């Protein structure tokens, strides 16, 4: 069986371990080993065998938890990202600045930023990897961005016809463009300037 063909899947994308009690310490050891290896060699050269060796577990122990290498890698990356949350400060602009700044930190100060360029290339050829990344990283975090914009619309800070998808894409897109395409560092104060510019067409005049 190849590294990309693991045990039969069960709901949630992990391998079948029905009837076996889960060991949280083993889970964490595997995830730590995966993120260390990912940071060192990149996604393509990560092997389940080496993750198992570093974690001090057997390959079947990993197969029982994650049905494919891609799912293991993405879940390991999730551990490096601060979980998003709805920080309702009373200002949609302020909340979006906070979320933008958090994403900048995730992209520049965690293994995510170092491995993402290679990972994106693999996503084009690996639909399971792409789906895992979207489901475990992109979608959960964008919910908080969307909620911030919708709160602004509900409070009257933003107009009711605000294009939520445009706002999210316009704030997040340039960060990935800098990381993946230009390689240029993200300018200090980006979050404030970007939020002000993107929200300008939708910001209502004070009453």
From TrEMBL:
GO terms for molecular function: DNA-binding transcription factor activity; transcription cis-regulatory region binding. Keywords: DNA-binding, Transcription, Transcription regulation. It comes from the Bacteria. Residues 47-66 bind DNA. Pfam families: TetR_C_11, TetR_N. Residues 1-24 are annotated as: Disordered. InterPro entries: Homeodomain-like_sf, HTH-type_TetR-like_transc_reg, HTH_TetR, Tet_transcr_reg_TetR-rel_C_sf, TetR_C. Residues 24-84 form the HTH tetR-type domain. This is TetR/AcrR family transcriptional regulator. It comes from Cryobacterium cheniae.
